[in-house]
Design a protein that fits this description.
about 325 residues, 2 domains, two-stranded antiparallel sheet, binds zinc ion, globular
Length: about 325
């Protein structure tokens, strides 16, 4: 159970300490400490994170150095402390996996990724500087979004029964290893004919069809330049225009470029019966991949009842992804 000493992860807002290790939420117990490394001029050079174990409250043990340290330690700023301790922010391991994926989707260069990680650290630092009036180490950082609902569970015992219809289950669902991810996503794929305006009497049909054919006849590198403009897809209209071929949407969905938060989606799945890989019978043609992609690209898909039903773990992943994007988009 959580209590008033519970430490909360700085990325997702879920608890790190005070939580028993049970199968469904083991990932809450696997944590790292982030710390900013400064060069001899005091300039922030790199952010590193180390595996750690929570010893209760803000106390942690770093495995690699066998050190006991305090996270979010206000002595970092105290004028009365001569040897200032390093500043550590705790996060779940899984949340850093997601943060790395978000950062990689924003910038493919190593230099750019290091810069974004520094920005993430600086935003956490800015949030943390809002210490309480007594200057105590805060066990949770205040986030204007309220961690998209998780914040209210920081105010009570954090149990699966909390909230409307066990809402806390969402926040404690493993956001990285998601059982039957492929099947859950592809279950929302509909036949193309039922939605494609080019198959009915839409007066725009010749125009859309003509444009689509004109684009299809362009050299591949020109098509790539056009499609680069729509990736990654973010909160598009839910009315597909069908200008690009279904094969484009199909390939882009599985390449990870269109919807980076689905980095591990695949066209095959391991069969539970015999452990072999099985393919899905839905191929590129004849299915409305464009509508599926646009639905999956809705920012609010992690909220209950929005767009369509997706597994809790995927909703939690999208929520954490959004939180990291909020951090990266925060100006200092
Ligand atoms: Zn977390």
């Amino acid at each position: 159970m959580t209590d008033d000493r519970t430490m909360f992860g700085t990325i997702c807002g879920g608890p790190i300490s005070g939580f028993e290790r049970i199968k469904t939420r083991n990932w809450f117990c696997d944590c790292v400490l982030l710390t900013g490394k400064r060069n001899h001029n005091g300039i922030l050079s790199d952010i590193r994170y180390v595996d750690a174990e929570n010893l209760g409250g803000t106390n942690f043990f770093i495995h690699s150095t066998s050190e006991a340290v305090v996270a979010c330690n206000p002595n970092v700023w105290s004028p009365f402390v001569k040897d200032k301790p390093p500043l550590y922010f705790p996060s779940h391991v899984k949340c850093m996996v997601i943060a790395e994926e978000v950062i990689a989707s924003h910038d493919s260069s190593e230099r750019g990724q290091r810069s974004l990680m520094r920005h993430l650290w600086q935003v956490l630092e800015a949030r943390w500087k809002q210490l309480d009036p007594l200057g105590r180490a805060p066990h949770k950082l205040h986030v204007s979004s309220g961690y998209y609902g998780a914040y209210k569970f920081q105010e009570m015992d954090w149990t699966p029964e909390n909230g409307k219809e066990g809402e806390a289950k969402l926040f404690e669902s493993n956001p990285v290893e998601i059982p039957s991810l492929n099947r859950a996503v592809l279950s929302h794929l509909n036949p193309l004919l039922s939605a494609n305006p080019s198959s009915n009497d839409d007066p725009d049909e010749p125009t859309i069809k003509g444009l689509s054919q004109a684009i299809s006849s362009l050299p591949p590198e020109i098509i790539a330049n056009i499609t680069d403009q729509v990736t990654p897809l973010n909160n598009p209209s839910l009315t597909p225009n069908y200008i690009l071929e279904p094969s484009y949407w199909h390939a882009s969905l599985f390449s990870g470029t269109l919807l980076p938060y689905l980095w591990d989606i695949s066209e095959t799945e391991i069969s539970e019966e015999d452990g072999t890989a099985v393919g899905f019978d839905k191929t590129a043609d004849g299915w409305d991949w464009e509508l599926l992609a646009e639905q999956l690209a809705q920012t609010s898909i992690h909220e209950r009842g929005k767009v369509f039903h997706i597994p809790l773990g995927l909703r939690n992943r999208r929520r954490i992804w959004r939180l990291v994007e909020d951090i990266l988009g925060t100006e200092l």
